[in-house]
């Protein structure tokens, strides 16, 4: 049950952020659910590999390169999921930051109330 709630919260964050940013577009809320699933899949399987391969640059940049990895995952998601479009890398970077913040805030509110 927790997985479904977190998926819906992430999808809401994706939908809201895509609505807010002019460089990101999404077809509808069902597409947002699919995008949240793909991002979750890539975060689970691809992100650890990318983090491991980029340890030296991540150390040199004091961890800021992790933002680049997040943006890469967003760009890959836009290639995989056709109803989701990100114009360029910078929109993907901003999108990943805002989705993380919105998702975190929604989760805090949801579990504070419930």
Please give a structural write-up:
By secondary structure, the chain is mainly α. The protein has one domain. The protein is built from 6 helices and 2 strands. A two-stranded antiparallel sheet has the order 1-2. Helix 1 crosses helix 2, helix 1 packs across helix 6 and helix 5 packs across helix 6.
Notable traits:
globular; 114 residues; mainly alpha; two-stranded antiparallel ribbon
Large-scale geometry: globular
Order of helices and strands: HEHHHHEH
Strand order of the largest sheet: 1-2
Report helical residue fraction: over 70%
Overall structural domain count: 1
CA-atom Rg in angstroms: 14 Å
What does the main sheet amount to? 2 strands, antiparallel
Distance between the amino and carboxyl termini: 14 Å
Question: Count the strands?
Answer: 2
Average pLDDT metric = 94
Strand content: 5-15%
Secondary structure: elements and pairs:
Layout: H1 2-20, E1 24-26, H2 29-45, H3 47-53, H4 55-60, H5 65-80, E2 84-86, H6 89-113
Antiparallel strand pairs: 1-2
Please summarize what this structure is:
This protein is mainly alpha-helical and 114 residues long. It has 6 helices and 2 strands; from the N terminus they run αβααααβα. It has one domain (2-113).
């Amino acid at each position: 049950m927790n997985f479904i709630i977190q998926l819906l919260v992430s999808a809401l964050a994706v939908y809201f952020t895509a609505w807010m940013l002019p460089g990101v577009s999404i077809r509808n809320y069902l597409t947002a659910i699919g995008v949240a699933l793909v991002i979750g899949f890539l975060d689970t399987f691809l992100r650890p590999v990318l983090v491991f391969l980029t340890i030296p640059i991540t150390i040199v940049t004091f961890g800021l390169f992790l933002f680049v990895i997040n943006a890469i995952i967003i760009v890959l998601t836009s290639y995989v999921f056709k109803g989701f479009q990100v114009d360029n890398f910078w929109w993907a970077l901003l999108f990943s930051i805002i989705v993380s913040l919105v998702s975190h805030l929604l989760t805090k509110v949801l579990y504070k109330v419930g």
